[in-house]
Amino acid sequence: MPTLSLGSGSGVDTLNGIVTYLSEGGSVATLLSASLVGLITSPFIAIIDIIDAITQFATSPFEGAGESIASLFDGLLTGPADLILAGSAISEAAIRSVFGETIAGILALPLTVGLALLSLFLLARFLNEEETGNLFPGLPFDVPVIGADEEAVADE
Questions:
Q1: Are the C-beta atoms of 29 and 37 separated by less than 8 Å?
Q2: Where are the membrane-spanning stretches (predicted)?
């Protein structure tokens, strides 16, 4: 039994598909019933496509935001974890070269954790530093020549 192929849906492909279907012994009644069903269902299919396009338009910013947030959390969490993993591998290699295999196996984890905690402590201490000067970081005074001179403002 022949099959009805309309190609890409353009006018020429549709006509060629109908002619091929009929020339291979296809039924005209089947062709007319398929055409009537197509005419009846096409407005509903068009409405469904329009609703789908509207919902895709409305939801695509949220999908993009969700993907962006996922990428942000992935970068914020796995990036530092990968950095700590690479640092621990380097620390392990250095400890093994200095202390040898046996002692390095025992000291690798405590030293790596200690180095990670020390670096976090130094970062937290730097971020909590309230008073700093304009000459060198950490000095609690300003050099008057550098930067803009500010006048004291009375509190209201």
A1: no
A2: 31-51, 106-127
Domain boundaries, the chain: 11-128
CA 49 to mean position of chain CA atoms: 28
The residue type at 122 = L
Alpha helices in the chain (DSSP H): 11-23, 28-99, 101-128
Q: Within 13 Å and on the Cβ side, how many CA atoms surround 122?
A: 5
Q: Is the pTM of this model over 0.85?
A: no
Query: Within 13 Å, how many C-alpha atoms sit on residue 62's CB side?
Result: 5
Separation between Cα atoms, residue 73 and residue 124, nearest integer Å: 21
Instruction: Encode 57-70 in three state secondary structure.
Output: HHHHHHHHHHHHHH
